[in-house]
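Q: My collaborator sent me two sequences in one message, no labels, and asked for predicted structures for both. Can we handle them in order? The first one she listed is below.
A: Yes, handling them in the order given. First sequence, followed by its structure tokens:
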Amino acid sequence: ALIKGTKRRDTNEQDRMSRQFKDWRDYLVRSIEDHMPTKESYTLLHTANMVGLFSCVFIRASQLSSISNMQAAEIKRGMGGLHGNKKGALMFRFNIDHTSVCLVNCHLAAGQTQTMHRHNDIAAILESTPFPAEHDIASRRTAYVSGGDGSMIIDHEVCILNGDLNYRIDTMSRDIVIKAVQTKNLKKLLERDQLLVSRKRNAAFGLKAFAELPINFDPTYKYDVGSDNYDTSEKHRAPAWCDRILYRGRGKIKQLDYQRHDLRISDHRPVSGTFRVRVKTVIPSKREKVWRDCQKRFEAVRSRLERET
């Protein structure tokens, strides 16, 4: 009876969450339709959810024909990866022309002292192989980097990783953190930010390969819902920059802005980023010609060196 009751509660919770996600999706679709110019209309390319995670990807309608190789995946981390957990990642990858892009929406382990748990979550996500491998050698060389086959997140040329990463501010009391926020002494707090410190000092940390624009906004967590007051509940959680956006793709992506928004419907303040991405188009016949020319030059240099020795 207990098992049946638990299953029924789980099902009811899933149904409730599914309705909420659908309502959010429909709201986002309507908002974009209402506010974007008709000549720049956007269409919903992908949507996915996993308990506490929700992703919606829109694309300009005129670019839809440039999209290929779409794949979605998820990794569950909370509760040992069991059904119903609220931690993990939603991943969506695609090619735009001949450039591979991977979007990762994360929710990592919570708690002031759970830094290593969060590091382990990141390692599990980045070291996983959630996507099918590309077996065609030419396609691999065209779309992926570092000899990758597209099965891993870091195989992709451009990657944006965001979400409630849950990293906190170390070795400071709540009162000291709030006072620093009120006096705009963010530098003092950022020097103790677990994510920034780990990226700087831990050579093996998975997010060291990613970049993040400097933070110049107040901590985004934890607020009393509906107000501008940091947590006044019994737990009195210290403020922190839990909500983050990181990216990788040397020479292919540039972040133009990084900001938070003062919406009061949650205990988090949302953050946003605007990016400019360089997209390549490969013309097979021209690439083949360049490849042959490179081979000829290489052979010429090798022959010269052999004669000289």
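Q: And the one she listed second?
A: Here it is, processed independently of the first:
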Amino acid sequence: MPWSITSAITGCFAGCMFSSSSSSTSNSSPHESVGAPSHLDGEWTTHTSNLTALFCLSRPSPPRPAHPPEIVLQILSHPTRWLLTYSKSTSNIHVSNQERPIITLPPFTTSEINLVRRIVFRFRSKDQGFSWDSQHHGTYDHSWTWFEAVVRQDCDEHAGSGDMVMEDDPRHANDSYVRKKWGLQHNRHAGTQFEDYEVAFEHGDDRMAELKNVMGERDVIELRACARYPAWMNQVEEATVEVWCLDDLSGREVENHVNS
């Protein structure tokens, strides 16, 4: 059978369970694998699954030897092993003739930035549903409502002592704090129905590389809903931003740090 990440993880889990169940009826030699450590008991998450995979793959389970470190690293770097580190949502927002931050994630540390592997922007939206440019109705041409992804400095750090900057504060849309913007998606011109959109920055693509290059310590990622010119309105029924990260196996329960 050809080697695969799925078969390697399945095999190592089976080896751990077999060795754990058999350890009570036989004496294990120093080279035989033993059961998973007790601190993995309890709720099963991607993080505890990764710790178990690390434990199993890095130890021999006769007749299989321990996997080489580079193979273990490859397995734990696979997208199925990434952690949902942040997920923040909002709903029922109308934006007219402005660029408005609608979701702002907490500031990132440098170590967290290095671990980011995927950022997903989801939104369900439409414009005001009419315009005078009837030739463009139903297309994305000459649409003046859209969404942007933004990396900017944390406004709270530039506020006065004890002055918390709220998410809809105009300073969030102040370009003097912005490091980089990316256009994500326009609404359909004079659309009458809400539509679902999803845009992802993926590990290895140009946008992700650029984001990680411009993003500094304590910078934030935000989703902006935009509309330009009077009468144009970006109507957002719901929106979500997700950040998926490589598990650094530090023992912190990253998946519990999900914001709603």
